[in-house]
Hints:
Pfam families: Peripla_BP_2
Organism: Emiliania huxleyi
Radius of gyration: 20 Å
Number of helices: 10
Shape: globular
Protein name: Fe/B12 periplasmic-binding domain-containing protein
Order of helices and strands: EEEHEHEHEEHHEEHEEHEHHHE
CATH architecture of the largest domain: 3-Layer(aba) Sandwich
CATH class of the largest domain: Alpha Beta
Helix content: 25-40%
Amino acid sequence: TLSFGTQQTKYPLEIINCGVKQTFTKPPERAVTMNQGMTEFLLAMGLEGSMAGTAYIDDEIWPRYEKAYKKVKVLAEKYATDAQLMEVDADFITANYGSAFSEKPRRRSGSDSGLHEANIGTWLETTYCEDKGLRPEVATEQTVYDAIKEIGAIFNVNDVAKMLIDQIEADFDAAQTAVKNTGHALTAILLDGIGCGDDGKGYFVGAGEGSVNMILESAGMTNLFGVKDSESFKEDSYACVTADEIIALNPDVLLLIEADWDKALNKINHLHNSSAWCAAPFVQRADYIKIPFSASALSPRN
């Protein structure tokens, strides 16, 4: 069972993560984080000494974790290969996105699974479970806390996990108070990228069930693709939509993702070089908010 507070984890510890059952006989000692959100989760728990490497950094590490981050080896700019994982003798791999486990040698379950057979533990953030039926109906603050509790139990740092949850709860409370004090309510759409869909002409936006929706709601905004029972509601964490859909919803603000591989300025240039987009009031006003991609995934920043 999962321990909490200042109790010690009792091993063997059985975890069922996204339907994948595994047993930990001791805390991982050579963990590899495959996405920035999970990297910052482990660093927030003071686990840099138990990390053999990191991968796929989207942008700048949160300054409060930068010193600890520099102590950990960077294995790859994107996902670490199987050879790189074996080279550092990884005993635990954790990720925000299922794509980290999409290659056959790294599959977490099934007859061709290689990780658990090699005694390498895994943990995937639940809003991206391989089986969509196992994902939470909608990401909430509790989704963040449950992740922290489970990681804390796996690494036997339950007291640190409790302190981190208390800190994040305080941050959520402060944000909600600040939003109430402003007296304002904004509608918003988060634009992650341009060029999705079969024709490559779609727009990748934050949908109604993942971390993006949770973050917008916590900031006092209404995610126009996250309004339940509306015609515009989109399932999952992200969705590919048309320009017409976004323009018709006419958000007060457009949040633009800033990532090393896709700058917010590229999106702005695209919008301002299209007659259809230039007619949209929010484009004419240039009502944009730039946020780093790393802040859009579940992480201690939430």
